[in-house]
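Q: What would this chain look like folded?
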Amino acid sequence: MPGMRRRRGGLVRTVGRTAVVAGTASAVAGGVHNRQSKKHQAQADQQQQAAAQQQQAAYDQGQADSAAQAQPAAAASAGNEDVYAQLERLAKLRDDGVLTEEEFAAQKAKLLA
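A: My prediction, written as structure tokens:
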């Protein structure tokens, strides 16, 4: 057949090409896998940092809340001591006869209200 030229090593050449294509595909897939792994790791790191910041903020808020609650408790305690001292003075005035029983009861009710 004129014009038709027969190629030599057809099977060997085909196997060689297949090996090159498979090797290139493997290298590309490995590169894509590495890139995706790094991307996912970066996202996981960001999520961990965000979670740590949220925990720290919640902890700080809890500390501020407990400090705020401690102050009114101390003030209430001081206020209770004042009421107790006033009740003692009223009782002494009642016992000394300066206040009547009704006046003492009225003042006591006013202090405890």
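The mean pLDDT is 77.
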